[in-house]
Amino acid sequence: MRRTPAPRSPVHGPGHRRRWVTTVLMVLALFGSTALTGSVTATAAPRAWTPRPAPMTTPWTDRVPVDTPLPEYPRPQLTRPDWANLNGIWDFAVTSADAGRPASFPQQIRVPFVAESALSGIQRRITQNDKLWYKRTFTVPSGWDGRRVQLHFGASDWRTTVWVNDRQAGAPHSGGFDAFSHDITDLLGPGANTVVVSVWDPTQTGGQAVGKQRINDVTPHPGGGIFYTAASGIWQTVWLEPTAPAHITRLDMVPDLVNNRLKVTVRGAGTSGHQARVTVSTGGSTVGTATGPVGSEFTVPVPSARRWTPDDPFLYDVRADLLSAGATADSVGSYTGMRSVGVARVDGVLRPVLNGEFVFQTGTLDQGYWPDGIYTAPSDAALRYDLQKHKDLGFNMVRKHIKVEPQRWFYHADRLGLLVWQDMPSMDLRTPDAAARTQWEAEYDRVIDQHRSSPSVVMWVNQNEGWGQYDQARIANEVKAYDPSRLVNNMSGVNCCGSVDGGNGDVVDHHVYVGPGTTVPDAGRAAVLGEYGGLGLKVPGHEWYPGGGFSYEDQPDAAHLNDRFVGLLDAIREVRLPRGLSGAVYTEITDVENEANGLLTYDRQVVKVDEARVRAANRALIGASRSPAAPVTLPVGQNRSLGVTTPGLTNRYVRHRDGAVSTEVVDGGSGALLKNDATWRIVPGLADGSCYSFESRNYPGEYLRHREYRVYKESGNGDLFRADATFCPVRGANGAVRLSAHNFPGQYLRHYDAQVWLATPGGTHAWDSPALFAEDTAWTVAAPWAP
């Protein structure tokens, strides 16, 4: 991948405060205080503005301030006390894509909500033939005199050009998911200043990273599938910041747990001849401090470091000072979490490890869409809400799916303790040309740079299901070299949709709907399930397009959804975890437009599942990875009979008759034929030697086999037959054994009305009935009726 250096800007004019005041102000700014920001006054008389009606209202839709939306400090890992938020009402116009600046701006838009959204007040379809224009005036606070003024954009999709007082600020920025800035000091005048921004966004018609965006109608409509409404223009906070002429631009922090230290690189602009001092503290007490060169790595001691984990997301405070001839030229605040990430063999199995220990990573696919703001959450509380629901539901991980959120989202993940798998947003599905590849790789570098110090981020996911795929192996190697402190996933869903596995990276990642599938580690990579689930439940009154929702498996009601979902989590814990699976991503945390497979509705008004029950299942899964139970083994090469454990039916055993398998009462007085039919030879699994197959005693070469849910005694060959005839044992109550289908983990042998079926927890067939499910699927491996 092409590596781009950190941007540098010409600077002049220092301004300082006493250090203790600076520290207090930086802490307050980090937590979202707006009282400390410099005031920015719009000089034009405001015109009437109202939002458009949202297709669905979230709990925050009607609470978004008109003039000060998203007022929180936008860059929590590099804080300064003085800043000014430019979010709010801007003048707005749309022209043809090739037009110059319009003579007038007849509309108004609420920044930073995209033009397609209701919260912007525009809510119109934007195509590759359009160009968006924004305009507002501001006055620089008088307290900033003598300092440089930086104009920051959290993100703007896609090609963004900025003018201040009719003079262009820097080069146009191409990219929809990375922050960028311009030093506008030399463009400013006294009093009111005018900023004009143009944005051209071709969405999927261009070659750039777009993620799930597609040019569609902006109001609810049928169709759309797994792709959603486009998000064009400014979609993250726009803000001003005064800086010294020599100032810090970025902190790269990598914990080194082995040596109890923090590796730090302080990057800056105008810093020739300067040194950097970094101090790590907690509760106001210094833990360690060190001084080193700007732009080069040095280390800060962190003795007896408290580990950051999902259960204890402890964060240290960090301060970086820029020093020149003993004086402090600049100071910034930050934070870090001391943790390590890697892959190691645990009990002979390749596993991802956090702080040297394996913990199963269970999370959801998080698309980051909102019915009112589309790409932009209506408030910081809303942004945090989805992450908090992950914690409430017992998850310890989230996969941010082909979108990159504002830095405050990562801040919330860091503080809440969620492991983040961060996708690089994909290009369109077609194979990209050379220009698109160069742009995508450069933007990916910037995304990594801007989030490389967040402790929650544990894996970079390069590509997804082959969308815009190319050079998978090379990219994985280069991302790993660029950030060796994290796991790299060369392709999520290597088994899906024409994708090509690069064969490298730290994990092999399958997508299985509904799942959980049979993913296993390979020679050099741990096994993860990058997507599974997709269980759907439409909630009347909470559908984006009523009647238009789809899922990978519709559920008739909440009871079935709960049973089915918990059944999947239990299957991962009971069957797939012992056989090498190390992480799983459920699709998905919320409904999104016409996708109805969320655990929450799209408007975040309804949690569809039983939170306590799902949390318990997730905690049991995580606990099983920390304290694995001894594997269940069966006596290979010996004859056994499978007895029913359901109370009142314990004299019944599995037997075959005319090819079909049922249960029947067997006792000492039963005939020889019945006893032979009820006896099975246990052999290594035909499809997986770590599981088992059951061969008929009196019909050698014929096995218990499920077919279309019913269970038969059959012979056969081929991969399908071998998989259908293989069962993996799971520990049941009171020494009993449950038998899970090898190729359908989470479906179990069950007797129902004297017949034997493959039953699914939460399934909709009669044999899936929840009544006595656990008892009916538990068997004794008893002495054989026929030796």
TrEMBL record:
InterPro entries: AbfB_ABD (IPR007934), AbfB_ABD_sf (IPR036195), Beta-gal/glucu_dom_sf (IPR036156), Galactose-bd-like_sf (IPR008979), GH (IPR017853), GH2_Domain-Containing (IPR051913), Glyco_hydro_2_cat (IPR006103), Glyco_hydro_2_N (IPR006104). It holds the Pfam family Glyco_hydro_2_N. Residues 383-493 form the Glycoside hydrolase family 2 catalytic domain. The keyword Hydrolase applies. Residues 47-61, 278-294 have a biased composition (Low complexity). Residues 127-201 form the Glycosyl hydrolases family 2 sugar binding domain. Residues 47-68, 275-294 are annotated as: Disordered. Residues 246-339 form the Glycoside hydrolase family 2 immunoglobulin-like beta-sandwich domain. Keywords: Glycosidase, Hydrolase. Belongs to the glycosyl hydrolase 2 family. This is Glycoside hydrolase family 2.
